[in-house]
């Protein structure tokens, strides 16, 4: 369902970055003249949604960055852009093109949300009519800042439309702690006012705010609040119309995902390739080069799992079958991954990510990137795992916490006896287990890097025994944060100092 796939500009001061604010207007329409009804608030919110599937954000740049920085995905094509390789190798300069590419786009998402929030004040209807719509903008703003603060730490925080470019160009950074305080406040507003359900999971409902509050508190290490929020979602499973999808494969099937109860908030991809001005890509440069099996022209072999990820994943786990393509079709013949490079010089002889290439729906081809598969940014299985992880930190050897993991594992069996239920684990052993469960359940869904960073696992997962072998450039004193974009610092020295080590 694609109702939100356009960009929205009310005034020329829609933000691009924090100090590079010039933009050519599509038209001039002052907010005072535009915002008359609740439909106008929704139109402004829709502009924020439109930015989210852009190539700059989840279409490629941010999603690929997160994928490559994890310990599960490596560069497959060594001739790919150096700006991607820099993240994979933890050798990222302050002018890295991936970061500068999506930094501006995230602030455009924020700008559209701010415009909707400010515009809502001009709409003269009761709060109970407009706040459920305005709450979408609060959710979107929190969602965008939550990505930024986890990547950069202290960042510029804007909570209203930019009407003075000079003032915005001299803004200072807001502390990480204060950004999180504002994110939580936005999500609390959203949780209060969003309806229990929406017509589509691509529009946030109360469950989305509830779930992201749980993840924010988990990230901050406030485990009691994280558990309370996650448990609030679980206790309202029926009210929110949530549940685990019976077949794990359906979560990655464009023809079935929209009717599933598992997605809580999803990005709406429509299979339309909008040129270099906004390519609706899904997902980020995966798939087997020259592969014929899905009729999409093969893939790109840029983001490819390390062989150790495939070999260490138990073959009895159904999620492994869904997550990987270990064979391809070339010239009409089925071939093993050990021969992939035989059929294309830029291919790599490893199993590839299959979650986003197997059932793309109607696609504008281009190697499957222009897909109809809506991406689940938060799904119910993750809420169960958040509750389990948080409760374990509050109460060791909790049967309730074990039960949440076992519920997720139950689906992974797909009618077999593996993976078995867990019970009686110590606090430390369970902590390790739930992080492992997140690694497999959410494999290649752009979550793993954030888990590594929040739990400070870098020295553990990037050493010689890690899934990708030793990442000798990884520095825990530097690499849990990204560098602030060099061009932003040059334009606005008030954003100094640069993050440590860059």
Automatic annotation (TrEMBL):
It is found in: Cell outer membrane. It holds the Pfam family SusD-like_3. Belongs to the SusD family. Signal peptide: none annotated. SUPFAM superfamilies: TPR-like (SSF48452). Residues 351-502 form the RagB/SusD domain. Residues 92-218 form the SusD-like N-terminal domain. This is RagB/SusD family nutrient uptake outer membrane protein. Keywords: Cell outer membrane, Membrane, Signal. GO terms for cellular component: cell outer membrane. Gene3D superfamilies: 1.25.40.390.
């Amino acid at each position: 369902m694609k109702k939100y796939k356009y960009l929205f500009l009310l005034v020329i001061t829609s933000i691009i970055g924090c100090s590079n604010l010039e933009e050519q207007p599509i038209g001039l329409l002052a907010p005072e003249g535009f915002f008359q009804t609740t439909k106008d608030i929704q139109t402004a919110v829709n502009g924020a949604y439109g930015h989210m599937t852009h190539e700059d954000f989840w279409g490629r740049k941010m999603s690929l960055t997160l994928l490559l920085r994890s310990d599960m995905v490596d560069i497959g094509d060594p001739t790919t852009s150096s700006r991607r390789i820099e993240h994979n190798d933890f050798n990222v300069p302050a002018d890295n093109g991936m970061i500068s590419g999506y930094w501006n786009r995230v602030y455009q998402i924020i700008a559209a949300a701010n415009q909707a929030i400010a515009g809502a004040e001009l709409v003269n209807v009761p709060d109970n009519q407009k706040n459920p719509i305005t709450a979408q903008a609060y959710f979107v703003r929190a969602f965008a800042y939550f990505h930024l603060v986890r990547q950069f730490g202290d960042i510029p925080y804007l909570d209203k439309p930019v009407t003075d470019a000079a003032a915005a160009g001299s803004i200072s950074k807001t502390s990480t702690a204060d950004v999180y305080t504002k994110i939580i406040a936005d999500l609390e507003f959203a949780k209060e006012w969003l309806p229990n359900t929406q017509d589509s999971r691509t529009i946030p409902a109360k469950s989305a705010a509830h779930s992201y509050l749980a993840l924010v508190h988990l990230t901050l290490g406030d485990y009691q609040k994280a558990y309370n929020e996650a448990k609030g979602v679980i206790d309202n499973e029926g009210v929110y119309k949530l549940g685990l999808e019976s077949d794990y494969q359906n979560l990655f099937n464009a023809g079935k995902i929209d009717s599933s109860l598992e997605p809580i908030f999803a990005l709406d991809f429509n299979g339309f390739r909008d040129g270099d001005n906004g390519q609706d890509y899904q997902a980020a440069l995966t798939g087997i080069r020259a592969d014929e099996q899905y009729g999409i022209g093969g893939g790109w072999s840029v983001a490819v799992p390390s062989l150790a990820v495939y070999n260490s994943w138990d073959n009895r786990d159904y999620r492994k079958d869904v997550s990987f393509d270990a064979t391809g079709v070339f010239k009409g013949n089925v071939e093993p991954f050990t021969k992939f490079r035989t059929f294309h010089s830029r291919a790599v002889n490893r199993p590839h990510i299959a979650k986003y290439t197997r059932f793309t729906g109607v696609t504008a081809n281009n190697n499957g990137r222009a897909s109809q598969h809506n991406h689940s940014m938060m799904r119910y299985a993750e809420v169960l795992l958040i509750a389990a992880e948080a409760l374990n930190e509050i109460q060791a050897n909790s049967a309730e916490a074990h039960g949440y993991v076992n519920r997720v594992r139950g689906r992974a069996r797909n009618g077999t006896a593996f993976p078995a239920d867990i019970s009686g684990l110590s606090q430390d052993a369970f902590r390790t287990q739930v992080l492992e469960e997140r690694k497999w359940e959410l494999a290649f869904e752009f979550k793993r890097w954030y888990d590594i960073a929040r739990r400070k696992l870098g020295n553990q997962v990037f050493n010689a025994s890690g899934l990708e072998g030793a990442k000798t450039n990884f520095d825990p004193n530097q690499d849990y944060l990204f560098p602030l974009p060099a061009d932003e610092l040059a334009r606005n020295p008030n954003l100094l100092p640069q993050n440590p080590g860059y």
